[in-house]
Specification:
alpha/beta, elongated, Helicase, Ruva Protein, domain 3, Zinc Finger, Delta Prime, domain 3, 349 residues, 53% helix, 5 strands, 3 domains, five-stranded parallel beta sheet, Rossmann fold
């Protein structure tokens, strides 16, 4: 049997299954149950937070032959099955990144005139809609202004500021948020159980932190780690797969910065380079460690770094992270950022 990635295998099939987007699910379910569904929606937010999944669920909900009392698609009727397996002639997914010209939008505009072939409504899902050209937006605008009753548009974008206000004003907008670490952890734990595997709590929390609020990123990382490991999924395994630096090394580098020890810093970066580590990933780990030190200090606990040291290091390292993001010489840029954070001019001569 062909292997299916976890993010596809466990893609939500109901609005209530959307993780961390309860505000979106509740409003859309109210619209469905009260038969007040709009002709056009735009879903905005970071990648991997459920925008396209919500659009696909809505396409099933408006075409379902036996919806639930709450408005959810039943998932069993012929319409739901066709849309779920991508064989419906009336639900079209368009990637605006590769179909961004006026000709594609003209074809869409001509196609909406015709009645659905199989379903109750035609649904056009346009992903990354901000990639459309100005001419394509103008062609789409006319259709959004006066859409036929049997047509529904679902737009999705990670950059809503690039979508013309004339388009935005004709859609109901829903903002998808980054997902909290606890929600990500709970979902990952659930998936591990469904897969018949076990994992340490620390391991799953590490994945949740690395995902930075993106559910798809978290599930993809879990998938990668499960493939790479046998038996119980440990933090050590995940650290190896993700290229995460050992916490003792992070502490040693933080101590070197606080002690204004430039030689230790340079040797530390040299070790990272020799092991082929991701310089920016290391810097982000260091930022997390220093931030934790600051929070512990503010709560009255004894810490390696005092409050003044932690604040000063955080300011310098955040600036260094911005430079490192676009640097063509990451090793040199990291060394410079760490040395600046160490304020060598304050060291004893």
């Amino acid at each position: 049997m062909e292997y299916m990635a976890l993010y596809r295998k466990y893609r939500p099939t109901r609005l209530s299954d959307l993780v961390g987007q309860e505000h979106v699910a509740k409003t859309l379910l109210n619209a469905l149950s009260n038969q007040r569904v709009a002709h056009a929606y735009i879903f905005t937010g970071p990648r991997g937070t459920g925008k396209t999944s919500a659009a696909l669920i809505m396409s099933r909900a408006v075409n379902c032959l036996t919806p639930t009392a709450e408005g959810e698609p039943c998932g069993q009727c012929s319409a739901c099955q066709r849309i779920l397996h991508g064989t419906s002639m009336d639900v079209m997914e368009i990637d605006a990144a590769s179909n961004r010209g006026i000709n594609e939008m003209r074809d869409l505009r001509d196609g909406v005139k015709y009645l659905p072939a199989q379903e109750k409504r035609k649904v056009y899902i346009i992903d990354e809609v901000h990639m459309l050209t100005t001419e394509a937006f103008n062609a789409l605008l006319k259709t959004l202004e006066e859409p036929p009753e049997h047509v529904m548009f679902m737009l999705a974008t990670t950059e809503p500021h690039k979508v013309p206000t004339t388009i935005l004003s004709r859609c109901q907008r829903f903002d998808f948020h980054r997902i909290g670490q606890q929600q990500l952890f709970d979902h990952l734990q659930h998936l591990v159980q469904l897969e018949g595997r076990t994992a340490d709590e620390a391991a799953l929390r590490l994945i949740a932190r690395r995902a930075e609020g993106g559910l798809r990123d978290a599930v993809s990382l879990l998938d990668q780690c499960l493939v790479a490991s046998e038996g119980n999924l440990s933090q050590k395994t995940i650290s190896g797969v993700l290229g995460i630096v050992d916490e003792r090394f992070i502490m040693a580098m933080a101590e070197a910065i606080a002690a204004h020890d430039g030689l230790r810093i340079i040797k530390g970066v040299e070790l990272l380079a020799s092991e082929g580590r991701d310089m920016r990933l290391f810097l982000q780990q260091l930022l997390e460690f220093v931030r934790e030190q600051l929070l512990l200090n503010m709560s009255g606990q004894k810490t390696m770094l005092n409050r003044q040291q932690a604040l000063q290091i955080l300011r310098d390292l955040v600036d260094g992270d911005q430079r490192l993001r676009f640097s063509l010489t990451p090793r040199l840029t990291l060394e410079l950022a760490l040395l600046q954070a160490a304020h060598l001019e304050n060291a004893a001569m």
